[in-house]
Design goal:
alpha/beta, Leucine-rich repeat, LRR (right-handed beta-alpha superhelix), 17-stranded parallel β-sheet, 8-stranded parallel β-sheet, 7 helices, 35 strands
Amino acid sequence: MKINVLQGFENLTSLDLSYSGLSIKAMASSSATVSSLPAFVTLSLASCQLQALPQFLANQSDLTNLDLSQNYIQGEIPQWLWTLRNLQSLNLSSNFFEDSETPQHNLTSILKLVDLHSNMLGGNMLPLPSQAVYLDFSSNNITSVIPNNLGDCLSSFTVFFSLSKNNFYGSIPKSICKAAYSIYLEVLDLSHNHLNGTIPDCLMKSSLKVLNLRNNRLSGNIPQNIPTTCGLKTLDLSENLLQGRIPLSLANCTTLEILNIGNNQIDGTFPCHFMAISSLRVLILQSNKLHGEIGCVHSPFTWQMLQIIDLSSNDLSGTLPASLLASWEAMKAKVDFNHLRYRMNQTGGLYYQDIVRVTFKGLELELVKILTIFTSIDFSGNRFEGPIPNTLGDLRALYFLNLSHNAISGSIPPTLGNLDQLESLDLSQNHLNGTIPAQLANLDFLSFLNLSNNQLVGSIPDSRHFLTFSESAFQRNLGLCGLQLNKSCSIAMNKTKEVSDDGNNDDSKKKWFFLGIPLGFVVGFWVFCGPLVFIRSWRFAYYRFWDKVLF
């Protein structure tokens, strides 16, 4: 479809052909054609296979909303696009823009929304519109330091600001505190860059709702003295070089839903003070240096909303907290199908999408959308011991359970067969004994199972579902038998019996051997010495023999 077909529609002010399946050729053939096109106020051509930026837009002085996202437009963002005097919303995301012509003057003061994410923009950061509310420059190739005057450049009305997934380096400028203290800034995302230095204290004392500094090179401690006015809903400090202990004052962020401090060098014990955060849904503390037991038995609070917890690869010990597991109500029953995100009321319904990374079915997986029905427990890679609590069987909405690489002993509780939503179960590298409960064969959704490297015995449950699991799920359990291990249970039992019988025969032979030694000595002694004692002629002959030998 050519844009020329719109000639003569003088009263047309709004056009939305986004996601219609149409392929738009938006190049006007002549200046006469350009002048006869409608004066658009709103133009949306998202996902219309555009190959180039429509030149007729340069004359669209009434345009307020322009959406050209998810096309194939390359080259530079032209200067004239920034100077359209009525433009308020500009969305050029998911294209192939490589650069932008720098405006000769400050960007138009009326521009409120700028979305350039998922392009190939390089060089330095673009100038910021003076009245922008929503700014998204994420997923580009911008390589520079964050300007020291960033806080002054951001509008006092900015609600959303993201530089995520670029190549920014250096430290986070202190001037960002000016924007962070604004009552408007709600989302600040500087994740997936090369930032170093420490986290400015002001970021934890601001009005922010979402703070994401994931995957940088930040060091030092997590800021202390967090005020009771903390309104954070998402805090992601994972994949950095942070040290020290988790501050007690972080419990003041009572509205937190997602807390991710994984893959750092955090020391100390399990943060029982987080129990006061009743709204917590996701807690990631993996790959740190946490140690000691998970007690929290004296806490009057519970995590009824908790749906994902990852404590893997630490140095935690003691027994698994049965009473704590029993309090996780969100893992016991299905909830409404939705996903976790933060909706910004001042940006026309736009929202920030929360992302978390989990190890699921033996693979590392990034959940781009955290569904409210997804539940996960990962305690792997610690020093937990003792039995698996029966209370785990009450978490009937659990999707993923990983207790591998610990020192857990005892048998596998049959109550795990109650987890009818379970898709992944990993109990490998422990000291579990006994048989595999037949109830596990009733887990129809179970698609990943690993019981290897334990002390399990008996036959693997004989069900078509269990036959889908490979040998690796059961290997290095010397007492196990079944088709998956190519070991017949009847033969294995016979061999065990034969081994037992052979063992008894060996013991009997050894007993008669050792009894025969003194008996043989006694018999041999009297056979030789008896005639010398009782027969006189033998005795005299014996004496004469030794006389001749000595002579």
